[in-house]
Amino acid sequence: ICRLIFRSSGTASQWVQRNKYFHMLSRGVERDGWKFVLLARFSPLPSYIINYALAATSIGFLLDFLLPTVIGCLPMILQNTSIGSLASAAVASASGGSEKSRVWSYVFPLLGIASSIIISLRIKKYSSEIAISDDSPTGS
To answer: Could you list the residue range(s) of the whole structural domain that residue 54 is in?
Structure first.
């Protein structure tokens, strides 16, 4: 629905094209397509904001949007699972659970935190590259 609104409404598309953040998003989609969507899925922005923003671009659906979305949702699923595992380990340790399950319950959240930091740094580097390429002169 959002894609139809942005493509059929002249006012909405003009507003979006004037926005500097959308311009960066649009350049990223044009430049890298599925890579950009995958990094966007790893960002801390809520999915619905990313969905609306990507609907206003010229991104393809299956390979550039759907596949990276499915892959990009996996870390969040793993993070939620590890939080559940940590809660389970807390209950198990209170009731005298095994030492092995207690160790694993701390490993998964630490991996989740480390991956979040690495992904955040990658997103920052990527957005800086797009901003620099926008500022550089195009004619050589």
So the answer is: 17-58
